Amino acid sequence: MLSSLPSSLLHRLALVLLGLASSGCSTLDYYAHLGQGQWQLLRARQPVERLIADPATDPQLARRLALAGQAREFASASLHLPNNRSYRLYADIGRPFVVWNVFATPEFSLEPELHCFPIAGCVAYRGYYQQGRARGAAALLRQRGLDTHIGGVEAYSTLGWFDDPLLNTMLRWSDERLVAVIIHELAHQQYYLPGDTAFNESFATFVEREGLRQWHAARGETATASDDRQRQQFVELVLASRERLSRLYASDLPPREMRAAKQAEFERLRQDYRALRQREWGGQGRYDAWIESPLNNAKLLPFGLYDQWVPAFATLFARSGQDWPRFYEAVAALGRLPEADRRAALASLMQND
């Protein structure tokens, strides 16, 4: 079965698995699961051009793949993102998400449980190709008294180790979201700093947003400002709640009182959301299901990770003369700084946005 993959690809996959297995026997089953999931994804890939040209391909699928191809060319030609075979292939994996990420925090903390890997470094989540495995892992974490959250992911980057395909999971979204995801994941291939999730995700999120703006401008289109505004308002609401929770957890309240105050804060977040939806969005909210389902510390984690330094990267882009190669060089220079110096530099950029 493995012989259906090119030998160079097999060599890369073997190196990845060897590095993962060296972490210890206690996690070998998890790493074997990762290897199998990645292998199955790679085997499912087909060239996009061949699918578009095939008259048997569903016309709607062909249209979405053609749009993705245009976005892929734009990303390399105009945003100077890697020009390789990633997202020029397609794979239907027969499920709604490619992986499920499990986040966890202590009951009275917003600091994530970290998981360290040979290639990606330490990250604030652990990914699973099977939803059942993710649920089992979350259940074990809850037995330890941790807050947990499972988030489905429609795409991810192997950071250039493999030619990442377009996935059926990505095609569930709007045309705009599809373009945004392609840009975001290619940004991870452009630059990735092992062990600093907030840096990496904020960088990719900025490239996604600015790249999407330039994509619309190049096509003479008007960006959906209302969607961007709603998302920004929602993120600000969640981050304000995170800040209040941080102050609560830093207090010396006894556990029982802190637990009650924590739940009161989550109820305040729901009430603030409902008021915002009614006041600003005409009673229609994109995040109703998220806000009305159970809330805990772990569920708030992705917001701080994906948005924390976005304004800093916007300032850095402006200082680079809105020149993408110069911007990427400046990002790499930040990444070479010691962690404390890097965070200080980012904080300084935030103050000058």
TrEMBL record:
<dbReference type="InterPro" id="IPR014553">
    <property type="entry name" value="Aminopept"/>
</dbReference>
<keyword id="KW-0645">Protease</keyword>
<dbReference type="Pfam" id="PF10023">
    <property type="entry name" value="Aminopep"/>
</dbReference>
<keyword id="KW-0378">Hydrolase</keyword>
<dbReference type="GO" id="GO:0004177">
    <property type="term" value="F:aminopeptidase activity"/>
</dbReference>
<keyword id="KW-0031">Aminopeptidase</keyword>
<protein>
    <submittedName>
        <fullName>Aminopeptidase</fullName>
    </submittedName>
</protein>
